[in-house]
Specification:
The chain has 116 residues and is mainly β. The protein has one helix at 2-18, and strands at 44-50, 53-60, 66-74, 82-83, 87-89, 93-100, 105-114. Strand 1 and strand 2 form a beta hairpin. It is elongated, with a radius of gyration of 29 Å.
């Protein structure tokens, strides 16, 4: 009987050592309800500012059309900021967008929308 108690105690000790602590169990970093996007989307864009002129080339490597727009914010308060009309970048297509300010360019960015 003493041997079985010793075996039971040893088995319990081994089981406790082999069981990882609750905090050590790996978990997903994505909050519940949010899942990683299964379909990649978005054209890759290169923007070049030369003086007061802005040129952007956007290439869409994905199978879904991306509607890209160029947004130019001018540095001077009296200079008009511009937003281009959306241009459809079809799959495997490169589009060119241009914009300008009268004087210095302050900020430039591209927006993306799914569309046909």
């Amino acid at each position: 009987m003493r041997l079985s108690r010793r075996t039971a105690s040893l088995s319990l000790a081994v089981a406790l050592v082999m069981t990882p602590a609750y905090e050590a169990v790996p978990r997903a970093r994505v909050p519940a309800g949010e899942q990683e996007r299964a379909d990649p989307f978005g054209a890759a864009c290169r923007i070049r500012v030369t003086g007061s002129t802005v040129t952007a080339h956007c290439h869409n490597p994905y199978p879904e059309t991306d509607r890209v727009s160029l947004h130019v914010e001018c540095a001077r308060w009296w200079d008009l900021d511009t937003d281009s009309t959306p241009v459809a970048a079809a799959p495997a297509q490169t589009v060119r967008l241009t914009g300008r300010c009268w004087k210095e360019v302050g900020e430039v960015w591209i927006s993306h929308r799914k569309g046909s």
